[in-house]
Amino acid sequence: MDIYSSALSPALDICTGCYLLVVAVLSILGNLLVIIMAVKKSSRMKPPELLSVNLAVTDLGAAITMYPLAVASAWSHRWLGGDITCTYYGLAGFFFGIASIMNLTIMAIVRFVVSLNLQSPSEKISWMKVKILCLWSWFYALIWALFPILGWGRYGPEPFGLSCSLAWGDMKNEGFSFVISLFSLNLAMPSVIIICCYFGIAINLYFTHKKSMNSIRVPNIVKLHRRLLIIAVLISAGFIVCWAPYGLVSLWSIFRDSSTIPPEVSLLPCMFAKSSTVYNPMIYYNFSKSFKREVKQLCWLCLRSNSCHASNSINDNSIYMVSTNIKPRVAAQYTMEEISESKIVTLG
Hints:
Elements: H1 10-40, H2 49-76, H3 82-115, H4 127-150, E1 155-157, E2 164-166, H5 176-211, H6 217-255, H7 263-274, H8 276-287, H9 289-298, H10 307-310, H11 314-317, H12 328-333, H13 336-346
Antiparallel strand pairs: 1-2
Helix pairs in contact: 1-2, 1-8, 2-3, 2-8, 3-4, 3-5, 3-6, 5-6, 6-7, 6-8, 8-9
């Protein structure tokens, strides 16, 4: 039996390819927008924001390096390229997946550290520290991605034949230690850290708000941090929720016979996991007014209308002011939220 032949029907292969094509287009466009906006405001960008850009780079890298080959294979009704491309695809998916979860973990830790110093603007996280953390996430992911190449673990085709990943069913004996280490260090531990950090942030915001009810500045900082917390939680939850079904199916393949899972069933968690690269730009767009405004400014309609600029009035964002001593000229140039975000991130 050809392990690279599709185990799905031709109609389902075509639908899978169309789905992956849509995911690829949305992921590339969305994450490119995040990176473009970061470049546009690079002179005003604060160190913690680099982590969001780094996350967009990982999602963009996954979409560019993986999805075109998957779409072509789905429409060809078999995996193209054989063992070489299968190993490449599995390594790329594993590499970008580990880089993403590590980046999300670092984001949670940094956000928690920032929340401990809401009333101490002098406490900052330097560019050097954030750059080192970003580089560490890539280096850590590369080490784990190379382990199967070096003999600890193995890459192989998925049961449905149109994708490649870690060969879960082949690692029941010789790769069992790899699987346990992988799930412990790259799924369970990061998830616990992320949950604890965001739970700690929520507690810090609550007590900071209660201690400063008579103050003007700190409660507004709490309000802005609350919005940033919602964005961060949604991003982390989206990634974990997308990959959790795939992780459960993979564990089933380790402890049970993977042939008991129909190919159509094993396809669904894999496709759901691949959609994780799409959600982050959507979350930014829906919950960050400054990001939404800058995206709208790229639209050609904004060249003929001032509606995009008029939509973000001072009254709309005044509750997110951090300081009352902002000059009117500055306030006219930037929206209140952008000023607030710049000041609040400076706390990091």
